[in-house]
Amino acid sequence: NGQDPSIFTVTYHETQGEADTATNALSSPYTNTSNPQTIYVNITNTVTGCDTTTSFNIEVQEAAQANPDMVPIVYEICDDNMETDGDTTNDSAQFDLLTQNPDVLDGQDPANYIVSYYATQADADAGTNPIPFLYENTTNPQVIYVRVDNDTMVDDGTGIMVDSSICYETAELTLQVNPLPEFDIDDSYLLCINTNGTEVVNPPVIDTGLNSTDYTFEWLLEGVTLSGETGSSLIPTQGGNYTVIVTDVTTSSQTMCQNSDSTVVEESEPPVVDADVTTEAFADVHNILVTATGSGVSAYEFSLDDGVWELGVLNTDGSYTYTFTDVAGGDHIITVRDINGCGETSIAVTVMDYPHFFTPNDDGFNDTWNIYGIQNQPDAVIYIFDRYGKLLKQLSPTSPGWDGTFNGNPMPTSDYWFTVEYKEPSDLTQQKQFKAHFTLKR
To answer: What local confidence, expressed as pLDDT, does residue 426 receive?
Structure first.
């Protein structure tokens, strides 16, 4: 206090009386006998012999320790989103720092300490600029600093309890954002089954593209775990909503980050096909209406006699239809296929009409003449005449047809007339007769 220390002696005592008489001075260092404890001081001027006394309190506060076991604290959480840019150093997430207090205190009574977190060591030492407990990292990984303060409350001498803490310690804490398993499966897959719905044809493979060493897999169908399905891919055997849950078992045992994705497996099957000739027999133009139905989700394409594929029209009942127009008389094959490759169905259709010519020259083509599509009407009768009305032949619908002869003699190139008595194919209750002519060519 501005005085010359060389002319004073200062001694410390446990009682006021000892301080007054300057007896039983305390040695240094000194171990207190109570906590807190009052220490009394004697100050004597060695020149004049005058002395005075004063006192002060000493207090031993409980030490504050940050991470006393010295095991590095690494706070790991999983990323909120799947990695998109391949750079994990810019991954960020929100950390709840309060969850780390037990590790920081490591058995110390949390009621006696204040734990705060800082972005820099300087801020932690000064106790300034603490970061919020819900904190989003700025780099990955990021080292932050934790400060533990003794929270001892003492009487300030006026009866008010105040925090007299002078003890603190800091430690490092690493924030680590671990990536989610990165994979992608298609939004939907097509499961081809046969027409009776019992056999799977060329089943799809739902593949995560991950390996079973670094990840575990759980597959679910309609939310129910599929027993025994723990591989990185799945071959579905029925339609439905599938989910795969992937767990990273190598990056961190603390987080075991999981990611999931879902897909829909849709069943499709070759169609059931029905065809109707919508025009009457012997019409100038013939049309065939084809209807395809199936239990799947696919659209259907239609082809006549291996011709161009045409996309059908979707009806309100889920069936597909297509109309072939200007179809020639005779036998035809109509094929319908699933546009996604789940099979095709073919049916035979016959349009009742007559050939406008034939060439009975034994070359294997058009050697006989008969009505197309009348074979299933055995009661029908066909009469063939020359231009003068002479009956040359009476044909059975099931016969090979007229070979162009009369009484074993070849008839010349000319036009010939016929009459046919038949039932209308679209309505077998209608008995009809049709007359026309055709040409024999030699």
So the answer is: 85
pLDDT at 197 over 60: no
The full length of the chain comes to: 442
Write the pLDDT tens digit of every residue in 163-196.
566 789 999 999 999 999 999 999 999 888 876 6
* Amino acid type, 96: D
Residue 84 and residue 132 in one domain? yes
Residue 178, both tokens: 């671990």
Final residue in a domain of this structure, among 317, 351, 385: 351
pTM recorded for the entire structure? 0.64
162: which 2 tokens? 């105040």
Q: For residues 173 and 84, state if they share a domain.
A: yes
Q: How many CB atoms lie within 10 A of CB 356?
A: 11
Q: What pLDDT shows up at residue 91?
A: 87
In a domain, 156, yes or no: yes
CA distances from 328 to 160, 200, 352 (A): 111, 38, 9
Q: Is residue 64 part of a domain?
A: no
Answer whether 160's CB lies under 8 Å from 150's CB. Answer: no
Asked if residue 261 is part of any domain, the answer here is: yes
Number of separate domains in the chain: 5
Q: Is residue 375 part of a domain?
A: yes
